[in-house]
Amino acid sequence: MPTLVYLHGFNSSPQSVKAQQMWEHLQQKRPDIHFICPQLCATPAKAWAQIQAICDELVTQNRPFGVAGSSLGGFLATRVAEQYGVRAVVINPAVNPHILLQDYLGEQLNPYTEQRYLLTEQHIQELVDLRVNQPSCMERIWLLQQQDDEVLDYREALDYYRFARVCIQKGGNHAFVRFDHYCAQIIRFLQL
């Protein structure tokens, strides 16, 4: 059974709108695809360890898989594509989260899980260590980006993913307006 691994963003969860829309699409249209959307640990190195465990298990079982990720999940999905040689769809991805999250150092509250934790300089360094600085996987990545993202500068993503397949839309926001209209295309791109 093919598998779609969906990675949510910073201070988010599998209950996010996009994760739920993808799950509902698969339930209705593609029940043959297994959906994995883990509640990622709040800190980068621990989140990456979770993702690696999932991907390693899929590889061990010889199960085809693709990955989709939003915001910080897109950053992590890029690393999955690079390390595991799979296809990835990145939605309004964080390209430089080690810079962006400097403004969030200190106590955090995940509104979905109500988990409180401290975001520290060590976690910023973990993001630096996880970044794919010279990706070789761009032909396996599809960037879905909306220009009016209020959190991230869309031009960073356009520059970083310039050799990937790109869909740029005027308007929108960080949540990616009308994401549900892309679910079938995402599955086709991932070749699941």
TrEMBL record:
Span of the signal peptide: none
Kinase in keyword set: no
Source domain of life: Bacteria
InterPro entries tied to this protein: AB_hydrolase_fold, UPF0227/Esterase_YqiA
GO molecular function, one term: hydrolase activity
A Pfam family that the UniProt record links to this protein: UPF0227
Keywords: Hydrolase
Name recorded for this polypeptide: Alpha/beta fold hydrolase
